[in-house]
Amino acid sequence: MQLGPRPAALGLLLLCAATVGAGDAEELHYPQGEHRSEYDREALLGGQEEVDEYVKLTPEEQHKRLKSIIKKIDLDSDGFLTESELSSWIQMSFKHYAMQEAKQQFVEYDKNGDGSVSWDEYNIQMYDRVIDFDENTALDDAEEESFRQLHLKDKKRFEKANQDSGPGLNLEEFIAFEHPEEVDYMTEFVIQEALEEHDKNGDGFVSLEEFLGDYRRDPTNEDPEWILVEKDRFLNDYDKDTDGRLDPQELLSWVVPNNQGIAQEEALHLIDEMDLNSDRKLSEAEILENQDLFLTSEATDYGRQLHDEYFYHDEL
């Protein structure tokens, strides 16, 4: 299984938290294969308290705030929302909430309130104690050694994010640590970290075999479905120059979350569902006619934007 960085963080614990219980969540979200829009509000508004707050908004206030958001999405002010405008807005929303989350985490990690997060403070927040592994001494237990390797990678990322070489990370550096995909000076680190993990022959590229990791094909049996899916992703999504290997820039498209692709898919979905006159764009009237659908989509972060003045206030 290939473990690429996720938007929220690159650490092992957050990655595990994102995958545990995924099957149960999928069943709740799509019971018997049918989409249940209520799940989006319940799971993605940010908790029951925010769900309750959403319900308390009067229809008039929902209407007013939604119209304000529509106006902001309409970049050329022509009265219609195109796929490109919707996609750009959704990507901006992804980044905004990622940054807000990092700012909230910064306060939690900064134990002494001095405006910076030290490596010790990071460890205490994550593991309730300071952990210090010897870089040159492997552990006998396989599980402990795996954790040691991941912890050392986190430490390297922490040090790379620390541009001023101070005793800790300021807010901007902490954001770079938590979201290296959003910060230009971390790009090279992300690429090198991925090469160290996957480029087994050290040629500076990742082949299909290296991409698939430890999988070894049984010539007497057909490849399992997940391997076919991964091969298709390698060939059609990542290997842009079709040379059978991923160069550093192609590798980046694999290990960094493709929020652009997610946003484009959601934008197309909204147009497919809400475009009543088949002109491939959405008018304010079409959106208000399908208000519930719009409020259970990425375009409003499942309604959360109606509670965030950053989005519905007159000045963004």
Automatic annotation (TrEMBL):
GO cellular component, one term: endoplasmic reticulum lumen
Transmembrane segments: none
EF-hand domain residues: 61-96, 97-132, 186-221, 232-261
Keywords: Calcium, Endoplasmic reticulum, Metal-binding, Phosphoprotein, Repeat, Signal
Record InterPro entries: EF-hand-dom_pair, EF_Hand_1_Ca_BS, EF_hand_dom
GO molecular function terms attached to this record: calcium ion binding
Top-rank taxon: Eukaryota
SUPFAM superfamilies in alphabetical order: EF-hand
PROSITE patterns: EF_HAND_1, EF_HAND_2
Subcellular localization(s) per the UniProt record: Endoplasmic reticulum lumen
Signal peptide: 1-25
Pfam families in UniProt: EF-hand_5, EF-hand_7
Stated role: Not known. Binds calcium.
Family of this protein: Belongs to the CREC family.
Name of the protein: Reticulocalbin-2
Organism: Panthera pardus (Leopard)
Gene that encodes it: RCN2
